[in-house]
Automatic annotation (TrEMBL), chain A:
GO terms for cellular component: membrane. Gene3D superfamilies: Cytochrome Bc1 Complex, Chain C. It is found in: Membrane. Residues 202-329 form the Cytochrome b/b6 C-terminal region profile domain. Residues 1-207 form the Cytochrome b/b6 N-terminal region profile domain. Its cofactor is heme b. Belongs to the cytochrome b family. The keyword Kinase does not apply. Binds 2 heme groups non-covalently. The chain crosses the membrane at residues 28-54, 74-100, 112-133, 145-164, 176-197, 217-236, 248-267, 279-299, 311-332. The main subunits of complex b-c1 are: cytochrome b, cytochrome c1 and the Rieske protein. This is Cytochrome b.
Length: 357, 235
């Protein structure tokens, strides 16, 4: 009796999985959420192994020890590093595409906001990972952040003090390690939630469904294979691409105050934060950016129809602007950062209102 | 590739001539570790370790390395144990396989301290070649350049003045494999050794990477074909 019930449950589950019907002819870009989920799984698995050997009190040399002394440790480091980079690349692509097809409007607003939250969570996780490596750059970044944090007064100051334990206190990295892992788990959860929300927002039109198996399974499989190919290329032949040299220097108290060189996925944000002076300004710039991203479904005054030419051009321009922002010098970076705000605050309402009219 | 192909022939040649001659890496200068499929030249790196141990170790630490790591250069555990046993650590005890490389006492020369060399190749752009150029870049200062006290002229060091003296000279060490220890050879060998020290998994990474890339390239093509076919039939 019980057996039967169990079996029925199982078939139900499998059927639910394989019979997940979708609209036919989904583009390759629709596989991005699944690819993101796969990468986050790789990051969680390799991160779990790294955490076993990691020593927050001798961060730099323990990472060196993983690279040199742990069986396969260099591979785990490679998985983690390359995986982290690709997560940002793919999430960037996904957000870009959502902008381009106006997927954030109406029913898509919920999943859009979840994806934006994922971006915020991953950026913080990535920053923490950079700090946890214990290289000179991460050390300086942490020192700057904690110094600023403990200067804050009132409740934020209390939280910062409680969290960091003073300016880069001895146990700070141990706490950040826990936060890093919790945020990574949160990111996995967010991907699930955002995908569900996206599916709910776009019900399959009646009568033209396609079975998951084998139609979509074959597409996902090909996309995953392609991702694995890119992953192996990076892992084997460019594992340190875009990491910045500061992460291979042990932190020394003698050398400080050169600008921190972040890994590439933090380049645009770091420059955008620099638009406003002071630490408070940096935090403000980032916060305003995310508020604008969250508010995008309402900043867009269109009626939700697919975007027209002008709006698409602007989105392409925005994508280009962010790429340039990542590598720009100070003057150009200020211009590119200003453009991001200008795009969301002024151009988006204006152009979309024109479309609606 | 060619080298691997001709290696057996070369070996026969060496046997016939009766003398083990080290491969010439100097004319033209090249490092087997360089390039997308590079691998560590273990023979050169072993000689480079002799240079490090004989010349550099009195000033520069190699904190990231343990003596056991030298097995990665093709030395046997017994050979490595012998090397370690000859090292007296700061506490007076001989080193063991599991000891970190001995750290020299604190040194300050001309206001600079000798940097740890564990990651030096990763810390300089074009690191392998830079180390070679740096070690062979010493010389008399060009006319018009006056050196700060305790500094030496070096053509590739930023600013041209470095507080490390020229330490390499012909026959600064004696190579176990009979290679001629010219200054350039010593510099090239220690550069290859330090390349390995900075990235001990370089050879394995390239081998694993190549296999993975070939496998997934094949898999991607097959998967794309399958997908196309299924979509044509079902969609």
């Amino acid at each position: 009796m019980q057996m039967e019930a169990k079996q029925a449950g199982l078939t139900c589950l499998c059927a639910g999985w394989t019979r997940k019907d979708r609209a036919p002819g989904a583009p390759w870009a629709a596989t991005l959420p699944v690819l993101l989920a796969a990468l986050v799984l790789v990051l969680l698995a390799s991160g779990a192994v790294l955490a076993v050997y990691y020593d927050p009190r001798h961060a730099f040399w323990s990472v060196q020890g993983i690279m040199r002394g742990v069986q396969g440790g260099w591979l785990m480091l490679g998985y983690h590093r390359v995986g982290a980079g690709l997560v940002f690349a793919l999430l960037g692509l996904h957000l870009f595409r959502t902008l381009l097809v106006r997927g954030y409007r109406g029913a898509g607003a919920m999943s859009w906001m979840l994806w934006v939250t994922l971006l915020a969570v991953l950026l913080l996780t990535g920053w923490l990972g950079f700090v946890l490596q214990g290289g000179a750059g991460g050390h300086w970044a942490l020192l700057n952040a904690t110094r600023a944090a403990v200067m804050m007064s009132g409740f934020p100051g209390t939280v910062a003090m409680w969290f960091f334990g003073g300016p880069a206190g001895g146990d700070t990295l141990a706490r950040l390690l826990v936060l890093h892992a919790v945020l990574a788990l949160g990111a996995a959860g967010l991907i699930c939630m955002a995908s569900r929300a996206a599916k709910r927002a776009k019900p399959v039109p009646n009568g033209q469904v396609v079975a998951f198996w084998p139609v979509y399974a074959s597409q996902y499989f090909a996309a995953l294979a392609g991702l694995a190919l890119v992953f192996s290329l990076l892992l084997g032949f460019a594992p340190h691409w875009g990491q910045g040299m500061q992460s291979v220097f042990a932190p020394t108290p003698l050398l400080v105050a050169v600008p921190v060189s972040y890994p590439w996925y933090l380049w645009p944000l770091a420059r955008l934060a620099g638009l406003l002076p002071g630490v408070g300004g940096q935090v403000l710039a980032v916060m305003v950016l995310f508020v604008l991203l969250y508010a995008l479904p309402w900043l867009d005054r269109s009626n939700g129809a697919p975007p027209r030419r002008l709006y698409k051009v602007l989105i392409w321009l925005l994508g280009l602007d962010i790429l340039v922002l990542g590598v720009a010098g100070p003057m150009l970076a200020a211009l590119c950062s200003a453009w991001v705000f200008f795009h969301f605050l002024v151009l988006t309402p204006l152009v979309t209102a024109m479309e609606a009219a | 590739m060619m080298r691997r192909f001709f290696a057996p022939l070369l070996a026969v040649g060496v046997l016939a001539s009766g003398a083990a001659r080290a491969e010439d890496t100097l004319s033209p200068l090249h490092f087997q570790s360089q390039g997308w499929s590079g691998t560590i030249d273990k023979a050169a790196a072993q000689r480079g370790f002799a240079v490090y141990e004989g010349v550099c170790a009195s000033c520069h630490s190699l904190h990231g390395l343990h003596y056991r790591d030298l097995e990665g250069l093709g030395l046997t555990p017994a050979q490595v144990a012998g090397i370690a046993a000859n090292v007296r650590l700061a506490n007076g005890q001989p080193a063991t396989l599991n000891s970190r490389f001995k750290t020299p006492g604190a040194i300050s020369m001309g206001g600079a301290t000798p940097p740890d060399l564990s990651n030096i190749v990763a810390q300089r752009p074009g690191g392998t070649r830079y180390v070679y150029d740096f070690l062979t870049g010493f010389g008399p200062p060009p006319a018009g350049v006056s050196l700060l006290p305790g500094h030496f002229y070096n053509a590739v060091f930023p600013g041209g003045q470095v507080s490390m003296p020229a330490v390499l000279r012909d026959n600064a060490v004696t190579y176990a494999d009979g290679a001629k220890a010219s200054t350039a050879q010593e510099a090239a060998d220690v550069a290859e050794f330090l390349t390995w020290a900075s990235d001990p998994n370089l050879s394995a990474r390239h081998a694993v990477g190549l296999r993975a890339v070939l496998f997934f390239a094949f898999l991607t093509i097959v998967a794309l074909l399958v997908k196309r076919r299924i979509w044509r039939e079902e969609g």
